[in-house]
Design brief:
Layout (H helix, E strand, L loop, with lengths): L1 H24 E5 L14 E5 L13 E4 L9 E7 L4 E5 L2 E4 L2 E2 L13 E5 L4 E5 L15 E2 L3 E10 L5 E2 L6 H16 L1
Antiparallel strand pairs: 1-2, 2-11, 3-4, 3-11, 4-9, 5-6, 5-8, 6-7, 9-10, 11-12
Length: 188
């Protein structure tokens, strides 16, 4: 009888530990609205990695889930465009980061709005939805404070036809190659 209770106790503790690990590392998220089309769709269910940014910071091109300022009931999902200290501008349907026009194969259509040259404040991120003309995002004048980021969108779970890893489009290579080209021209 004593062995039976010990096994129940061990099983209960193990279940609690597994539950706590899952709760602190991942979160489920349901996409609401069309702001991330064509990448993500209304009703799509995602797993969000809450530990992705423990060791590092979000990168340009990451798809993140965050709590918007003044609305703690519903999390948002958007793509990181500008990092703290970057300058971001939207002019003539093109997004520029630090003076470099971004190649954005993931967007629904080019933005029909403009954003004057803006420096992203410290410890905040400039985010845009992939459906640029139908998204409440940083083009409306706000940025995402680092503490508001829940995590990185990691895996699509539902519907089955959209199952798989969430694709990031890291823009570091675009900007680094442009800066290298500028430096090479300056040295000539």
């Amino acid at each position: 009888m004593k062995a039976f209770f010990r096994e129940i106790l061990i099983t209960s503790v193990l279940a609690l530990v597994i539950f706590l690990i899952i709760q602190t590392t991942v979160q489920s998220f349901v996409v609401v609205g069309s702001s991330m089309e064509p990448s993500l769709h209304e009703g799509q269910r995602l797993l969000v990695s809450k530990v992705s940014y423990y060791a590092g910071e979000p990168q340009r091109g990451d798809v993140i889930v965050f709590r918007p300022l003044g609305n703690s009931e519903e999390d948002y999902v958007k793509r990181v465009i500008g990092l703290p200290g970057d300058t971001v501008e939207v002019n003539k349907s093109v997004v520029y980061v630090n003076g470099v026009a971004l190649d954005e194969p993931y967007i629904n259509q080019s933005p029909s709005y403009t954003v004057d040259n803006k420096t992203v404040p410290p410890d905040t991120y400039f985010v845009l939805g992939d459906n640029r003309n139908n998204s409440n995002d940083s083009h409306n004048g706000w940025t995402v404070p680092r503490p508001n980021i829940v995590g990185k969108a990691w895996v699509s779970l539902w519907p089955p036809r959209q199952w798989g890893l969430i694709r990031d489009y890291h823009m570091l290579n675009q900007i680094a190659s442009f800066i290298g080209l500028r430096l090479a021209r300056a040295g000539s």
